[in-house]
Amino acid sequence: MTDNIRKQRSTLKCVDVKRRTAVAWSFCDAKQRPVDLIRSCNNDPCPPDWDVGEMSLCSHTCGGGVRSRKVRCIRRISKTGGAESTLILPDGQCPQPKPVNSEACGLIDCPAMWKTSNWGQCSTTCGPGEQRREVTCEQRLANGELKQFYPPIQCRHIEKPPSVQLCDL
């Protein structure tokens, strides 16, 4: 949006009245030359408008995510362009419909992968023992739903993390 405050300047010419054409200023009496007129025009304030920022990156590349941006109703009050040159207004003061400030993204299925839980406690309180955890094959779908596979054939191409480890207290 551009600043609405403008200036009009009069254009003066030396004119040969008989031929009705412009001639050099040397043919006119300099004492009779009127002063240049400058007046302001288009002094009405700019109407409110939407200031729309850039969309953020998607929160998830797969399995459903969201990206967002800042959308504000503003009125420009100065041509300097800095933060002090705009007023932030309530959304209801902008005449046009508000642009969307968020949208869905990453709407593809994620690849299946192994998901591990935390290690459990050691099976003994003294000496060697073992710890266990759950290892499941999961896939987050484009709609955000989590799907588990049993048997885990979708994860067969990925090395399975261990579900048991030794511990020694």
TrEMBL record:
Domain of life: Eukaryota
Protein biosynthesis listed as a keyword: no
GO MF annotation terms: metalloendopeptidase activity
Localization (cell): Secreted
Listed name of the protein: TSP1_spondin domain-containing protein
Gene Ontology BP, a term: proteolysis
InterPro entries documented for this protein: ADAMTS_ADAMTS-like (IPR050439), TSP1_rpt (IPR000884), TSP1_rpt_sf (IPR036383)
GO cellular component: extracellular matrix; extracellular region
Annotated Pfam families: TSP1_ADAMTS
Keyword annotations from UniProtKB, A to Z: Secreted
